Amino acid sequence: MTRAAHRCVLALALGLAALGRAAPADTPFPDKPGPELAAAGAGAGFRDLFGALASRGPVLANFTEYRWFPFRTAPVVLGGEMRFSRELGLSLHYMRPEERIVIADAGGLVLRDASGRSRAIQPDDRTPDIGGTLLPILRFDEGELFRVFHVRGARSGGAWRLDFIPRSAEIARWVGTVTVEGTGNTVSRIEFHRSSAQRIEIRVEAPEAGVAFGAADRSRYFR
Amino acid sequence: MAPHPQKRAARLVLAAACAAALGILWLRDAPRHVSTDVMDLVPGSESAPELALIRNLAGDRQSRVVMVALYPKEEAAPRDGARLARARDAVLASLRGSGAFEDTVELTGGSYRDALGSLVFARRFDLLGPAWLAERWREHEKEAPRAPWGAWLAERTAARLEAFLYRPEAVGFQDLLHADPLLLVPGAADRLQGFADTADKSSPGVLLWALLRASALGTDGQAAASAALGRAELELSAAEPGIALRWSGVVRLAAESRRRIEGEFSRLNLLSLAAVLAVVLACVRRPVRALLLVPVVLFSVLGAWTAVIAAFDRVHVVVFVVGSLLCGVAIDYGLYIFLQAPARPDEPYAGKVGRLMKPLLASSLTVVLGFSMLLGSDLPLVRQVGVFVAAGLLAALGSAILWFAQVDDPFLETRRFARARPESPVLRGTARAVLLAAAAVALAGPLRLTWRDDVRDLEVPSPALESNDADLRSRFGDSGDRMVYLTQGATPTEARDCLDRFLAWHDRAFPGTAVLSFGALLPSPAEWAALPSRLAGLEAFGPDLGAALARHGFDPSAFVAFNDAWARWRDGRGTTAYDAFVGNLGASLRGPVALTLASHAGACWFVTLADHSGGAEPPADTHTFSSRELENLNGLFGRYRMSALRLSTLGLGIIGLSVFAIYGWRRGFGIFAVPCGSCLFAFGLFGLLGHPLNLFHLLGAFLGVCLAHNYAIFTWESAARGETPPPSIRISASCAAASFGVLALSGIPVVAALGSMVTVIILAALAAVELGPLANRHAGLAVGPKVD
After folding, report:
1. Which B residues in the span 171-200 are in contact with A, Cβ-Cβ below 8 Å?
2. Whole-angstrom Cα distance, residue B372 to residue B392?
3. CA separation for the pair B555, B557 (Å, rounded)
4. What is the rounded CA–CA span in Å between residue A47 and residue B539?
5. CB of B248 within 8 A of CB of B468?
6. Residue closest to A179 by CA, chosen among A149, A141, A206, A142
7. Closest CA to B414 of B273, B295, B287, B327
């Protein structure tokens, strides 16, 4: 139960972590994972991308989330807005079909319902710390990324695709492969892929970079 | 030369009594009846339900839990999961192979969480189905009572499942939902999580939980646990030398307590005997002959042991520790006989005994009568002390008379200082001043008395083990700021109904406070009873649900596993009685959650944890009590102290009446004033010193009063014969004071309490019989006999 709750919440949180300006829907992202990047860090071909993604400021964006379940004939669709700050973490404010907030930060995960009641899920050293594991993706923290994941990269013109395969089998069992796609220094799509019938796709829309989160926002949307 | 017939008869009687006593001890297998279990101090028939429950708990699985922590010896070293896993495997294999434990689980690492989840999933229909059906039925009756139950339920189930997929948790449960579209397990996840996450997550290392097979309070269980953990530690050091093992549990604390008490028992008895012998040897002219007193003490102790072992099935070891006081008391009669000079050179032993018989009988029988009053106590300890002392005194008197019949010259001359009675105006003035000061203390001091009974005073403190235990409990998530409630019923049905009432009360009394209760997961008896009628209209639920799922965008073929399980459960479930269901479920639980539910013949209880400390107590109709064990037991001892006080007062009254009946009002008052005054002085002294008293001070006071009573009688008897008080009184009192003074040094607080109280009373009584005549010489103070 706990593991299940961790997994679902973390998967959602992590999926929404990579933010940026939305890419046009017809952008030709590479359709297959590229070769594995050197474990020592991004090569020259990706160093500029990692640097650009890592230096983004706070972001506010809309998102649409598609959840595929093996027993459903069509995905479940949710929508809302996301907020990201390197210091505060990621906050997913689900607005459709019902209101709910999921926060992923260095302290773990927080689930907050529409009435404002929160439940924290603390990471520990026995339950795979999915939140902590995926934070490097949120931040594009190059050193941590290559320590935790096998990273594969592909580029096609201005579009790019990064596949993160957890080095830990336990983490991999929980979240599968994380794929992030984008153009330039914007993230357009994130997918958590366990199987073709079990995946979550998040499409990022209308991002605003360089926003400032005031006290009210911090209180409501972050821990 | 053949012995005198009387001597031979006395020898035969003594030998026969000894043989009988030893035979009884052997036949009763005496060590088996000696207990260090504090619960043996609580009556088995205790009427207060919370105490009866605590007694059950102490004897149940709770006390058999052993906590084991494995962690790197170098705390600064980074966590090495592989090494810890190897260490865990080695220790678990060792513990399981020892045969000492009936259950061993790892609380860290998730295996226990998974096992608990698997159990709940496997039994989800029985465990969670009845409440689910009852809730849906209420919705059906409220929203669409005319709709067919089966079709309505299928549609509602599919709609709930679809709505659930939009929640964050849905992703985590996606592997489960095809087998649980009713959302039984996800609905219980929050309530189960607290049971799965008992261990402190921040604690490094591995935590193992084990349940002993044998009682933690018995020597078998203690030896088995110690051996198993010792072996596990050895095997761990061979497998992973860098990993350390720490363990704790009631079994370890009880074993240490037993060891310390037994050590204390031996030490006190030896010291007490040595102190008594030292006093006697210092006061008599032929010290070697003083050893003739030793058999009397031994006979007395033998008699006391035999009586208490024969009379009680379980005797707390504190009784024997307290019993070492007999060394000081039992020697009284021997001294009185042995130190009395013959009335004439050729006076036969029978004549001497006959002359002394009245004070001997008057003192011993009144004391025995007084202590017999303690047999009316509800508290086993008080009854056992009563029997121990009464039997010991009778044995001491009988053996003293019979033993000295064997001795050719039954007279031991004392040294001059032991008989000296100096007199001077200065001494008289000093004596009066001392007595007046004592009287002031006796009158004013008792008003400042305070009482405090603490069951922890029964044990020898063991700070290192207690600190280790507290640390491990903290690692295992045993938070002291949580309330633990125990809900009891004669049957599971009754207990579960009480639990509902309690939880409803708790919601009102502590709104918003989280509670953790495995019992609350169980269906209520009413839901269980209604299950057949709820299932009656669900013959076609499988197909109905398939159709509803398809309407809501699901693939019905993915739910085959559920359909099969549902059909098996619905068709296969018999008419299991609720009580049998709960009993069976309780037996299948493992690990800490197993401690939250117990079902025995005639008693069932549920444990509820609440995130608050203190607060109002649940109402009586909930049959629920907060497990403030210490407070409850301390209250118990406070209550029994009052009972002992009443009985002691009654015993004292009987002693007084006996004295008045034997000696008349005037002499009786003089005799009775000594023990009463000494006792009041002791109470006054403790009151003025601000030292709180407890049940054991009270028992000590009663014993001290009886001893003081002896000295008063012997003194008055001598005065009545126109003799100076015999030296046996001051030697006897010194012996008793030395003996009890040793007890006052005990590491067991209650034994020290008893020893200090008796010592003060004896010294006060000795001062009264010594200083009274001296001060009375001209002033006529009626605190002692007038000696011409």
Report:
1. 171-178, 185-186, 188-189, 192-193, 196-197
2. 12
3. 5
4. 64
5. yes
6. A149
7. B287
Backbone angles phi, psi at B34, to 5 degrees: -90, 130
- Gap between the Cα atoms of B546 and A49, Å rounded: 49
Question: What pLDDT digit, counting tens, does each position of B388-424 carry?
Answer: 888 998 999 999 999 988 888 888 888 888 888 887 8
Helix (H) and strand (E) counts for chain A?
A: 6, 11
Average pLDDT of chain B to the nearest whole number: 83
Token pair 């650009």 is found at: A52
A73 to B553: CB separation less than 8 angstroms, yes or no: yes
Give Rg (Cα) of chain A: 16
Sequence ranges of chain B with CATH classification 3.30.70.1440: 60-108+201-261
Residue B616 CA, chain-centre distance (Å), reads: 26
ipTM score here? 0.82
Alpha helices in B60-148 (DSSP H): 81-98, 111-122, 124-143
What share of chain B has pLDDT > 70, as a percent?
87
Half-sphere exposure of B654 (CA within 13 A, CB side): 18
pLDDT at A37: 85
Buried b (16+ CB within 10 A) or exposed e, B344-374: eeeeebeebbeebeebbebbbbbbbbbbbbb
User: Which segment, A120-129, B92-101, B731-740, is predicted with the most confidence on average?
Assistant: B92-101
Contact call for B165 and A67, based on CB within 8 A? yes
Question: For residue range B477-536, what is the model confidence (pLDDT) as tens digits?
Answer: 666 667 888 888 889 999 999 999 999 999 999 888 888 888 888 999 999 999 999 998
Token output for A149: 């994941």
Asked if B712 and B674 touch (Cβ cutoff 8 Å), the reply is: yes
Q: What confidence score (pLDDT) does residue B36 get? A: 65
Residue B182 and residue B488: Cα distance in Å, rounded?
32
Kindly report, residue by residue over B44-69, the tens digit of the pLDDT: 554 455 555 555 555 567 778 898 99
Determine whether the interchain pair A111/B168 forms a contact, defined as Cβ–Cβ distance below 8 Å.
Answer: yes
pLDDT band for position A125 (50/70/90)? very low
A125 vs B174: CB contact, 8 Å cut-off? no
Give the mean pLDDT of A5-34: 48
The tokens describing B661, both together, are 């009946």
Other Cβ atoms within 10 Å of B427 Cβ, number: 15
Please state the CATH superfamily assignment of the domain spanning residues B60-108+201-261 in this structure.
Answer: Multidrug efflux transporter AcrB pore domain (3.30.70.1440)
d(CA B755, CA B738): 10
**Residue B783's pLDDT is what?**
41
How many helices and strands, by DSSP H and E, does chain B display?
29, 11
For residue B542, which of B132, B153, B176 has the smallest C-alpha distance? B153
Residue B422: the pLDDT is: 80
* Fold assignment, A2-207: outer membrane lipoprotein receptor (LolB), chain A (2.50.20)
Looking at residues B19-28, what average pLDDT do you find? 90
Residue of B165, B166, B201 lying closest to A124 (CB–CB): B201
Single pTM value for the model: 0.68
- Confidence bin at B608 (pLDDT 50/70/90): confident
Residue at token pair 């290559």: A146
Which of B168, B176, B178 is facing A100, going by the closest CB pair? B168
Reduce the DSSP state of residue A205 to 3 states and report it: strand
Label residue B231 by pLDDT band (50, 70, 90). very high
Interface residue B165 vs chain A (CB under 8 A): yes
pLDDT of residue B367: 76
Flag whether pLDDT at B603 surpasses 90: no
Dist. CA B320–CA B25, nearest whole Å: 14
- Dihedral of alpha carbons A41, A47, A52, A53, sign: negative
Q: How far apart are the first and last CA of chain A?
A: 23
Backbone angles phi, psi at A44, to 5 degrees: -60, -30
